[in-house]
Write a structure and sequence with these properties.
alpha/beta, UDP-n-acetylglucosamine1-carboxyvinyl-transferase, Chain, four-stranded mixed β-sheet, 12 helices, about 30% helix, binds shikimate-3-phosphate
Length: about 450
Amino acid sequence: MGKYLQINQKINSFNKIIEVSGDKSISIRCVLMASQAIGLSKIYNLLESEDVMNALKAIKKLGISYKKKNNYFEIEGLGLSGYLTKKKVEINAGNSGTLARLILGLLVNVNNYVSITGDNSLRKRDFSRVTKPLLNFGVNIKSKNNKLPVRIIGSEYLRPINYFEKLGSAQCKSAVMLASLKSPGITNIKAKKSRDHTELLFKSLNIPINIKKKKNYDFIKITGQSNFSGFNYHVPGDISSSAFFIVLTLLSKKSKLIIKNVNINESRIGVIKILNKMNANIIFRNKKKYKGETISDIVVKSKKNFIGIKCPKSLNSSAIDEFLVIFLVAAKAKGISTFNNLSELNKKESPRLNIAIKFLKMIGIKVVRKKDNIKIYGNPNLELNDFYKVSNFRKDHRVLMMSCIAALTLGGKWKLADKDSVNTSFPNFFNIIKKLGAKII
Ligand code: S3P
């Protein structure tokens, strides 16, 4: 592969069984929680992507040691007050919003100066969404224009907080949950529905947590300063990574794919619900429970006759990382698909709503946008023959992978920049599409 990735050929029919890498959200949470446990944790199937490696480097800078063993990572936690910082420390979270935001929560009791920075994309993202609630614990946080670098000096005298999370952001909710571990007393959180891996991990570690689930909000109470022991965890497959192959299968001819051992936690399967509403018929097989998460095989076959839908807003949070590929199916559907209230999509590694609209227009699809709502006018006969170049997408890993799926299913000749961006979340992406028969240059 040269500077640009080239795809000049659609994928042929395939019938395969694959496994995707470990879930990114859970991998980062496991690393951070293991760094706070007392004693040794063993994490199996940890996603070995840049975001997760940056989490390991971050805890190392804070005095926590880890080792890569044959098929697991070993992390030696030193408890809730175990981060050691003798001097000023700088943590580089790279591209990872999850790492930067969650670790801020863990730094609230570090009575030293820690600075968090990140790559060009992460330095453009807003941090007030986490620094505002964290300030209420009684810490000192400084930043310019609410962007990275953010400097935090924690406190020995923390107080618990009451927090209303309105965005449906698991990163904000989790940052506060992690900070609540350090503070005496009970922290109360009312949170709009979002992924709940932090809650499930707390429960499986016997951290005192009480959750009441209502229709639109969860009410969470956490009692702080309760130490927990090292743990073993086997990270399940990532549904966000699986989504690329699900859509590849749906849009290719006469193909079938089974993806083994994927986490199908209710708070993550918006993509499956939306695609099935569009007529996809994706099914779960061999469901089992593991530490509160639900793991399953996913079975998907290629399809014609997708239909345009009005996507319920209630699914936005649980499909937030998958909208780019969902839009590709909408582009091939009969009729108009409507997606509303997508402002959060523009706050990701790149402004994904803007980029998706540009992309869809480039491939000849009519899109009408009003504020943060879009209508995609599908074309079931969409077939591409021209030359397409995709660049200037802030090295957003998901934009690159979505573009590959478009190139492999819609035809045309494609040149894609920044192929290394897949390493952020899914270094194995190219190996798997090659295994499915993709020809990439
Ligand atoms: C994540 C939460 C989501 C998601 C991100 C990972 C997490 O972000 O987009 O990729 O692991 O908590 P928000 O919580 O900001 O919506």
